[in-house]
Amino acid sequence: MGETLPTAEGCIEPVPGGRIARRFAKLRAEGRGALMPFLEAYDPDPATSMAILRGMPGAGADLIEIGVPFTDPAADGPTVQKAGQRALKAGGTLAGALAMVRDFRRDDESTPLVLMGYLNPILAYGPERFCEDCRCSGVDGLIIVDMPPEEADEVQPFAQGLDMIRLVAPTTLESRLPTVLDGASGFIYYVAITGITGTRSADAADLAAAIPRIRAATDLPVAIGFGVRTPQQAAEAVQVADGAVVASSLIEILVGTLDEEGRATPGTVRAVLDGVRALAEGVRGARD
Amino acid sequence: MGCCDGGVTPPPPQAKTLLARAFRANHARETAAVNKPLPNASRPNSLRSGPDARGRFGDFGGRFVAETLMPNITEVQEAYDAARKDPEFDREWRRLLKDYVGRPSPLWFAERLTNHLGGAKVYLKREELNHTGAHKINAVLAQIMLARRMGKTRIIAETGAGQHGVATATACALFDLPCTVFMGATDVERQKPNVFRMKLLGAEVNAVTSGSATLKDAMNEALRYWVANVQDTYYCIGTVAGPAPYPQMVRDFQSVIGDETREQCLAIEGRLPDVVVCAVGGGSSAMGIFHPFLDDSEVKLVGVEAAGHGIESGAHAAAINGGSPGVLHGNKTYLLQDRHGQITEAHSISAGLDYPGIGPEHSWLHEIGRVEYTAATDSEALEAFQLCSKLEGIIPALESAHGLAEVIKRAPTMPKESIIVLNLSGRGDKDIFTVAHHMGVEI
């Protein structure tokens, strides 16, 4: 987390130290790991996705990841791809995702929000203006999937006050770790499987071997994603790491409630939040 | 239908003369300028030295991939850096080009076309005579050799028109490697003969239904597969796009086209051509013929994008003429996108040009002004397709027909002693169904 910038008029006040670091510190003090559910902004429509976002902290989300829809999500599996397509059809944009964050911040000042997406919509928006608007709206961290550290100068120079969250993969070489960790803040996102989102499940033994390797290289909290689907897996993840990111299985719950035209039904929001609750129970019971 | 009367409407005689005069004046000035040594080194010593260590051509190119893909890219980069220094690798590749592909491909003086157009001498670089019918095989053979060096046991590729898929399936048959070709479901439907060819050659064709089910989605799907199968799989990219080192590597392997053209033109005409023209989708055939001429400032280089129904219609595949810079498929380059940075659908009658991006080196060559990028519409390409068939007895690929459309516009404006070379990158047998459909003929 860099220095805090003066707050422009009408903007959300920054939290000293940053919401992400504070949340992880608080959880550490409580002796438990973080549940980080994911939702795709505007999936299947703006109102439903806003209601899910608002309800997530109450259902047990410790941090929330908001996906920004993109036409060509090359690192994502079919579930997240289709969520993106529904979101785009519903008018989803980067500006729309930022508006959701502003709305959310009206009644929640403490839950950290991380935007996850691809670089091209950010370049089209303008990286400098994007970072300004993130700070102003109350975004805490960024995961830009297709911007590895080697290309980080596209956005990083403008990102003071925002955590730049980096991915580490099972195939990331030991020799490459320092490059990946240089300039990283907030937490490290460990990709639990060799592949795309939502296609396989993480193996507990692999995780137990991989996480200490990252811990040896950084003091940042480590969250596990890409292969975490069930409350049981979320619990296993926070036994070795500091947090668990769950995306595809929550999107699958959402899809299960949509009508034939792909529209939300009265049960959509509750079903997704029930899914979050079940995961939260898993995470909270993990270290008992 | 104007395109189907069997001929090309010549420009009105008056306009033609005016244009010709303007061009001659221009041309004389340019020629005079290049015969003198450059006054100072305001330009870099060579335009052929890119990319830099970051894989950039100016601001374009790079390695914009998820961390999950970084090890794959690094491995290919290291393997390529080693292979290009290995004379044995080069020898084996040249042997395959000669005895398997049938290189060198001829540089054909298209006399009837020249007489018909009434201006510059038109030469055709006959890449369509290569084994598998297009230039794609040049880079594919080298990449499969590289994959073998790396110990990879499975090959994947993306394809649009199917030409790169066929070339990859061919090389995999030759080297006995299993091959999976990712192809947009829309393209599978409109390129049935090539789908069947790939299957005959033993490849598996994976019809991609995600996104818009075209070439860009096939590339996304191939990248996704590769991430999950990095240990045993090599991704054989068909064009000069994608993360570094692909734009450089594919260009280097395709530069055999320009190297030969240069030598052949010197042997036949005793000098270099005045203009070299090539159609551009991703731009591998164009980079291949342009690159050896980049430092010959007297040679004008013209890339021809697919204007589809016309740039102003929005239904085109002209990334430079109708797009803006962005990041897709691992590189920064000109792209078709909306104001939110969402990638928009490309349209072209030619499936091989139907891609919303262009290789990053082209974006750079455009920005520094070394290459001029024009565009030809579907109907201009259809007219050129028919004209070439009738006058030269050569059925060109619809991709190449876009380049030819530019030659048809440009040659009449050039003096008779000047030379224009078209890279005839592929043969058009695969396109006869599409062309027949547009001519209203049932076959």
Automatic annotation (TrEMBL), chain A:
Pathway: Amino-acid biosynthesis; L-tryptophan biosynthesis; L-tryptophan from chorismate: step 5/5. The keyword Lyase applies. Gene3D superfamilies: Aldolase class I. It catalyses: (1S,2R)-1-C-(indol-3-yl)glycerol 3-phosphate + L-serine = D-glyceraldehyde 3-phosphate + L-tryptophan + H2O. It is an enzyme of class 4 (lyase). The active site is at E65, D76. Keywords: Amino-acid biosynthesis, Aromatic amino acid biosynthesis, Lyase, Tryptophan biosynthesis. One of its GO terms (molecular function) is tryptophan synthase activity. Pfam families: Trp_syntA. Belongs to the TrpA family. Tetramer of two alpha and two beta chains. PANTHER family: TRYPTOPHAN SYNTHASE ALPHA CHAIN, CHLOROPLASTIC, TRYPTOPHAN SYNTHASE, ALPHA CHAIN. This is Tryptophan synthase alpha chain. The gene is trpA.
